[in-house]
Amino acid sequence: MPDDTAARAQQEFEAVVGPGDHVFLTLGMTDVEAEDADLAVEIPVVPRVSHASGALQGGVTASLIDIVAARLATRGAEAGETPAMSDMVIHFLAPITGGPARAEGRVLRRGSRTVVVHVDVRDMATERLAAVSTVSFSLLAPLPDQ
Questions:
Q1: Which residues of the chain have pLDDT under 70?
Q2: Do 62 and 52 meet the contact criterion of CB atoms below 8 Å apart?
Q3: pTM
Q4: CB-side exposure of 42: number of CA atoms within 13 Å?
Q5: Which of 11, 36, 83, 124 is the most exposed place for a label (fewest CB within 10 A)?
């Protein structure tokens, strides 16, 4: 990934989760290229984020979806605007056991005050579709200086 793309990815990530010692920094998320996706992020399937059965925890999958969707909502926001999630629907279709898990996001609609993002999650070991999600955001105006 070119340096400017890596820098943009880091800025997007920090805008969503904040800089520093955030738990998501320990998950090993990596931006990857994916056809037909505005953003794709992978996470390894390792024991500390998996069930005893070896499948990725559903909450980790939901967090991965949240981060991808929020990064996409942040990309088109005006200076000072904050995307705030207003709705998230996830359909879990199959366990993610081999990994890595890949979340591929696409902006479905960007309006003046809302953004709607679709995210597919796949188990890349099998390329099986494991979850589908639609996430909606309200774009909050900058707060006035106090």
A1: 1-3, 5-22, 24, 145-146
A2: no
A3: 0.84
A4: 16
A5: 36
- Both structure tokens of 119: 């995210």
Phi/psi for 80 (5° steps) reads: 90, -20
**Closest CA relative to residue 122, chosen from 144, 142, 96:** 96
Residue 100 identity: P
Across the strands, what pairs with 40?
Answer: 32, 104
C-alpha dist (Å) from residue 135 to 79, 83, 104:
22, 11, 13
pLDDT in tens, 60-90: 999 999 999 999 999 988 888 889 999 999 9
- 42 touches 26 (CB < 8 A): no
CATH number for the domain spanning 90: value is 3.10.129.10
Domain count, the chain: 1
- What are phi and psi for residue 61, nearest 5 degrees? -60, -45
